């Protein structure tokens, strides 16, 4: 439960059709298996106590009674399990039969949620047996002593028969309204109060129920059953309006060709639409195969992402760590998703019953893996598709700007590094889209104190290979003159020494753009902007910043993708060598002709900073949680001391350098994280980092 995590499980037990005792035994066995793995929310299939495929046996009174007996048995034999458990059974209420989900916790039956949408087409005939629970709202009385005695006697001897007149011995009877001060006839005044509380319960039966965890109030769970998800307006929509952020679905969905993909899409889409977690448990092997087969395709999703999926045609359990705080943060951020009872549409603005349950406060042992490169898809095909999409977004943004101002020329400072290489590739694509001559792209290389032969040669070769106009302006003399003017010793390699070069380069680019009637294309990336690793009014400034929302870890893959798909061997070789060059601003003199100033030695590894940035801005996680996730993601790659060191650096620089982001030039947003002051990040430049730094200091390794 720490940091908002809760472990969920969806299980498909082995069943025998109409053998409630066997089925309950399997459910209980599976509950204890889930318990060993730390699951706190456990979901089983629709009608799992009887099996879904009982057909006309659902009319048999002894089957319905036995289902109740085994429900009580499941509740009592899992009383020591610290979890909320959902099982399915048929339940008679006021002369009608309902297909319900029962919520159990610590031996208590908390409530019954009836199925609303009953399929009665093709192979489904549920309306033959069941009644829709759409408008149901009442209570069911359970005499636990009755059913407890029955299942205990059944285990003592298979030969004992119980002949009980239902009129005088019905453990699940409807509650009658009592006159004021009238005692219900089922209360035995000689019973102790504790026994009454344990064995005699009045339980809600309603589709409008929220199960709320007392120790974690933000965890609010609601249930729907199978077909409820497949209709245009599922009950889970109303559940979400009334606070539910975790939906459980007890299902019995049979298999036909292609249905698994559709089912997966439904679960994924509903969890995304409602910004919720979704646990889908469905029937599997053991159900009757008289006409259909059940595959047990269990699914657990969170906000559109499938976290776990079972193998079909094999009964078993899947687990996933759901992040309830992440869902809550996302709902708070998405102002159009206003999930509140008073904002529910007409017809869904109804009252809900709340059932409270308890869980022990403990840290969830995470089995969920967090991608150490959240901006970069791990699957090659998806990564290539993403790279092509981003290049097109960047190029389309620049294309619009060039066309709007009737600009025929572009100027780029080309260093031979990754960022300026990507900016040139994007500019070339934009010019091609406009049908403009690439020769009107002026690539300016401006060698100075820190320039190495490798980067200089790559810059020149890249420009020529792409058909841009190469212009060289050596700035060494101009920078030395500037140092003399301001009285700076060029042997002192401080921030003035470095920034003087950066601003000289920007001045040259701006003036060349003025000469040609062009615009300066910015090369700085998202990671540099987050850390403030840019010279104010130097490389920080341009007339259109094509890389402003592309993180450094993704820049590398974009250049690699271009190399792999350009179908030009010479160009590919140049790009691959650029990829192999250490990231550096090259502002300090090289040592023996080799780059001496490596950015990541100074500010830290970009893969760490991009990870921190993603979870801080995209998901608004606090420092302690980001540290915990980084430990998980970078296990075996960075030790805890290294992660914490650079996390402190990240927060310190992020807050200190906001003034640079407050005046960024225009540039296209390409992903879910951006720092434009006009778009995603409205942050004051003088905000204090004290709260975040204090939390970081509390982390003990």
TrEMBL record:
Residues reported in the UniProt entry to bind ATP: 413-420, 523
Presence of the UniProt keyword Signal in the record: no
EC number from the UniProt entry: 6.3.5.1
Active site: 46, 115, 226
Protein name (record): Glutamine-dependent NAD(+) synthetase
CN hydrolase domain segment(s): 6-324
Domain of life: Bacteria
GO molecular function, one term: ATP binding
Organism annotation: Blautia obeum
UniProt gene name: nadE
Reactions catalysed: deamido-NAD(+) + L-glutamine + ATP + H2O = L-glutamate + AMP + diphosphate + NAD(+) + H(+)
Enzyme class: ligase
Residue numbers binding deamido-NAD(+): 499, 528, 533-536, 660
Binding residue positions for L-glutamine: 121, 253, 259
């Amino acid at each position: 439960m720490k940091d908002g995590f809760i472990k969920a499980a969806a299980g498909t037990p082995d069943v025998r059709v109409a053998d409630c005792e066997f089925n309950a035994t399997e459910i209980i066995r599976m509950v204890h298996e889930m318990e060993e793995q730390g699951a706190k929310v456990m979901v089983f299939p629709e009608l799992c106590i009887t099996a879904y495929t009982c057909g006309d046996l659902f009319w048999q009174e002894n089957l319905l009674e036995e289902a109740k007996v085994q429900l009580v048995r499941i509740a009592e034999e899992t009383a020591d399990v610290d979890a909320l458990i959902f099982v399915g059974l048929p339940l008679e209420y006021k002369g009608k039969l309902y297909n319900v989900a029962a919520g159990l916790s610590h031996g208590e039956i908390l409530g019954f949620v009836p199925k609303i949408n009953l399929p009665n087409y093709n192979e489904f005939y549920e309306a033959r047996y069941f009644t829709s629970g759409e408008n149901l709202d009442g209570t069911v009385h359970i005499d636990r002593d009755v059913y407890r005695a029955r299942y205990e006697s059944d285990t003592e001897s298979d030969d004992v028969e119980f002949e009980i007149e239902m009129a005088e011995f019905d453990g699940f009877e409807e509650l009658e309204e009592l006159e004021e001060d009238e005692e219900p006839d089922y209360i035995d005044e000689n019973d102790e109060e504790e026994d009454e509380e344990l064995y005699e319960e009045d339980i809600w039966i309603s589709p409008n129920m929220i199960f709320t965890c007392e120790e974690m109030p933000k965890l609010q769970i609601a249930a729907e059953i199978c077909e409820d998800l497949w209709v245009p307006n599922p009950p889970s929509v109303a559940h979400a309006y009334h606070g539910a952020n975790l939906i459980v679905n007890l299902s019995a969905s049979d298999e036909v060709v292609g249905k698994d993909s559709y089912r997966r899409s439904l679960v994924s889409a509903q969890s995304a639409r409602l910004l919720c977690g979704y646990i889908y448990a469905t029937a599997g092997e053991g159900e009757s195969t008289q006409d259909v087969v059940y595959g047990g395709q269990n699914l657990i999703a969170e906000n559109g992402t499938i976290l776990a999926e079972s193998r079909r045609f094999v009964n078993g359990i899947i687990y996933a760590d759901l992040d309830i705080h992440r869902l809550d943060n996302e709902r708070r951020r998405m102002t159009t998703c206003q999930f509140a009872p008073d904002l529910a549409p007409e017809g869904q603005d109804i009252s809900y019953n709340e059932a409270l349950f308890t869980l022990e406060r403990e840290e969830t042992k995470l089995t969920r893996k967090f991608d150490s490169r959240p901006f970069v898809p791990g699957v090659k095909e998806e990564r290539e598709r993403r790279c092509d999409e981003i290049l097109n977004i960047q190029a389309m943004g620049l294309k619009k700007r060039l066309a709007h101002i009737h600009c025929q020329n572009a100027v780029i400072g080309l260093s031979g590094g990754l960022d300026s290489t990507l900016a040139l590739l994007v500019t070339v694509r934009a010019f091609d889209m406009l049908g403009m001559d690439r020769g009107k792209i002026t690539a300016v290389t401006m060698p100075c104190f820190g320039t190495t032969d490798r980067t200089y040669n790559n810059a020149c070769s890249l420009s020529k290979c792409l058909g841009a106009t190469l212009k060289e302006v050596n700035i060494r003399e101009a920078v030395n003159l500037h140092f003399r003017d301001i009285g700076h010793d060029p042997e002192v390699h401080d921030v003035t020494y470095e920034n003087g070069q950066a601003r000289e380069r920007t001045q040259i680019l701006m003036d060349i753009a003025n000469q040609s009637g062009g615009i300066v294309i910015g090369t700085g990336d998202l990671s540099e902007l987050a850390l403030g690793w840019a010279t104010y009014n130097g490389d920080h400034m341009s007339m259109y910043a094509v890389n402003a929302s592309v993180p450094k870890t993704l820049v590398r893959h974009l250049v690699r993708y271009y190399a792999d798909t350009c179908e030009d061997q010479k160009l590919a070789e140049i790009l691959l060598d650029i990829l192999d060059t250490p990231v550096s601003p090259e502002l300090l003199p090289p040592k023996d002709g080799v780059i001496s100033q490596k950015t990541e030695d100074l500010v830290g590894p970009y893969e760490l900073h991009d990870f921190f940035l993603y979870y801080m801005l995209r998901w608004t996680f606090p420092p302690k949680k980001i540290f915990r996730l980084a430990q998980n993601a970078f296990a075996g790659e960075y030790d805890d001391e290294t992660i914490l060191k650079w996390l402190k650096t990240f927060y310190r620089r992020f807050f200190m350098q906001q003034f640079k982001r407050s005046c960024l030039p225009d540039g296209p947003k390409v992903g879910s994280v951006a720092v434009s002051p006009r778009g995603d990040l409205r942050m004051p430049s003088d905000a204090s980092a004290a709260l975040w730094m204090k939390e970081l200091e509390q982390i003990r390794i």
